[in-house]
Design a protein that fits this description.
The protein has 4 helices and 8 strands. By secondary structure, it is an alpha+beta fold. It is globular, with a radius of gyration of 27 Å.
């Protein structure tokens, strides 16, 4: 009988110790060493490329899917005075846009890299057709632009965001990679772990 009591007492102590060990807080693994450029170098690259992008002019070709009617619109898109502030993790700039010669935007704008959830690069036609559909015009399809234009979208968690246009798709991809790296270094990006 005594052996049974000693055995049960030992078993209870072992189980209690196992439970206590299982509940002990374990520190998280160390952050991986960043093998990319520093935030300062990344922000300087972004600033230089956006300031060097200059003014782009393009013609948009649209078609109404309900009646086949087509239309063209001439746009200009200019960004200047780009400031990529590594301390604030923000990018600001002056934007000026025209549509068929009429100024539609002329002012300062910007975004915080901490608010960026994801970055998407796609052809302008796809971007604009989707935007028009979301805004109540699913019948309008943008068939092409001349020259080709690429849209770089910086989206927040709520789906809203900031869009930059490029007449050079390779430059759009390079800037998107730099922006993704800067977003990561600034603590932005998707908060979903998987």
């Amino acid at each position: 009988m005594m052996r049974k009591l000693i055995f049960l007492a030992t078993l209870v102590l072992l189980l209690s110790a196992a439970i206590a060990i299982a509940q002990t807080a374990v520190p998280p693994p160390p952050m991986p060493v960043d093998n990319g450029p520093s935030l300062a170098a990344t922000m300087q690259f972004i600033e230089n490329k956006l300031n060097g992008r200059g003014k782009i002019a393009y013609v948009e070709f649209a078609q109404d899917s309900t009646n086949g009617a087509g239309a063209t619109v001439t746009f200009t898109d200019e960004i200047s005075n780009v400031i990529a502030d590594q301390n604030q993790c923000s990018i600001s700039m002056h934007m000026k846009e025209t549509s068929n010669g009429r100024t539609t935007t002329d002012g300062n704008d910007g975004f915080s890299l901490r608010d960026v959830n994801d970055i998407v690069v796609k052809p302008y036609e796809q971007y604009e057709t989707q935007r028009l559909s979301k805004n109540g015009h699913p019948e309008l399809v943008i068939t092409s632009t001349n020259p080709p234009v690429t849209a770089l979208m910086l989206r927040r968690a709520n789906g809203h965001g900031f869009v930059l246009f490029f007449s050079d798709a390779d430059l759009a991809d390079r800037v998107a990679k730099a922006l993704s790296h800067a977003v990561e270094l600034c603590g932005g990006g998707s908060k979903e772990p998987f």
